[in-house]
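Q: I'm building a small set of examples for a reading group on sequence design. Run inverse folding on the following structure and report the sequence directly after it, with nothing in between.
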C-alpha cells in the first residue's frame, strides 16, 4: 500500500490518511488528516482566541468519565451534578466550576439575594428594602412582628407586601380565601363575646350560665315534643271524623 511521511507524526502513514492538495508535488497534504486539523485549529485560535468549547478536543474520555469545558479536565462522573434536562442526566460542568458559574451569574444580577428575589417574585433587593422601609420594618397585617417574607398573589404572581412568618403562613393555611378568613374572624369574635357574657353572669351572681354555641336556637323557641311526631294542628274535618268513629257513625 502506498504511504507518505507525516512530519508531525514522524512516521510513515497510509496515503489514505492524507487529504488531497493540488499545490503539493505528490498531490497530498504535508500532514496527516489528524495533524492537519490540529494545525488548522491552532492557527485559528491564534488569530481569534480559543472558542467556548462544549466538546473535548484531542482528548480521550474513558468510560465512566466526563470532560469539563471550564477546567479542561477529564473527571469521574461523580464529579458532576445531576441535571434531568441534559441527555446524560449530568451538568455540563464539574461541581466546582458549576458553582463558580452560578456565583458569577448571581453577582451580575446584583448578588444572591437579588437573584432569588428576582427569580421567585420579579423584584430586586433594592425594591424589597424600599418596601420594608415604607412598612416601618413591620408586618403589613399584624403590624407587630418583623416583616421577613415576601407575600405574593399565587394566581397572578404579583407581590403584595412583606409579612411576618406567622401571618404569611396563616394566609397560606387559609388558601388566601377572603370568605374563609372572614368566617374565621367571625368565629373568634363570637366565642370571645360568648365568654364575656358568661363572665358577666358569674360576676352578677346569676350562677353557672351555659356558653352560647354556634347554631343554638334562640331562647324560648324550643318546641315541646308531640306524641304524634308532628307539629301540624288537626283540622275541624279530622276532629269530626274522629268523633264519628268513636260514636260508631263511620260508614266504614
Amino acid at each position: 500500500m502506498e504511504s507518505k511521511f507525516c512530519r508531525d507524526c514522524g512516521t510513515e502513514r497510509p496515503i489514505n490518511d492524507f487529504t488531497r492538495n493540488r499545490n503539493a508535488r505528490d498531490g497530498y497534504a504535508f500532514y496527516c488528516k489528524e495533524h492537519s486539523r490540529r494545525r488548522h485549529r491552532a492557527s485559528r485560535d491564534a488569530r481569534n482566541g480559543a472558542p467556548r468549547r462544549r466538546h473535548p478536543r484531542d482528548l480521550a474520555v474513558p468510560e465512566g468519565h466526563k470532560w469539563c469545558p471550564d477546567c479542561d479536565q477529564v473527571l469521574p462522573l461523580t464529579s458532576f451534578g445531576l441535571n434531568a434536562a441534559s441527555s446524560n442526566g449530568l451538568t455540563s460542568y464539574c461541581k466546582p466550576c458549576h458553582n463558580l458559574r452560578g456565583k458569577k451569574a448571581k453577582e451580575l444580577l446584583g448578588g444572591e439575594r437579588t437573584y432569588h428575589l428576582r427569580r421567585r417574585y420579579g423584584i430586586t433587593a433594592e425594591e424589597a428594602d424600599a418596601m420594608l422601609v415604607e412598612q416601618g420594618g413591620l408586618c403589613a397585617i399584624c403590624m407587630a412582628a418583623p416583616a421577613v417574607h415576601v407575600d405574593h398573589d399565587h394566581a397572578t404572581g404579583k407581590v403584595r407586601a412583606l409579612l411576618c412568618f406567622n401571618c404569611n403562613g396563616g394566609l397560606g393555611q387559609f388558601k388566601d380565601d377572603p370568605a374563609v378568613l372572614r368566617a374565621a374572624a367571625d368565629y373568634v369574635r363570637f366565642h370571645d363575646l360568648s365568654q364575656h357574657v358568661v363572665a358577666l353572669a358569674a360576676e352578677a351572681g346569676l350562677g353557672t350560665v351555659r356558653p352560647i354555641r354556634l347554631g343554638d336556637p334562640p331562647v324560648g323557641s324550643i318546641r315541646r315534643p308531640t306524641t304524634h311526631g308532628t307539629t301540624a294542628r288537626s283540622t275541624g274535618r279530622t276532629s269530626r271524623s274522629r268523633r264519628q268513629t268513636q260514636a260508631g257513625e263511620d260508614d266504614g
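The radius of gyration is 43 Å.
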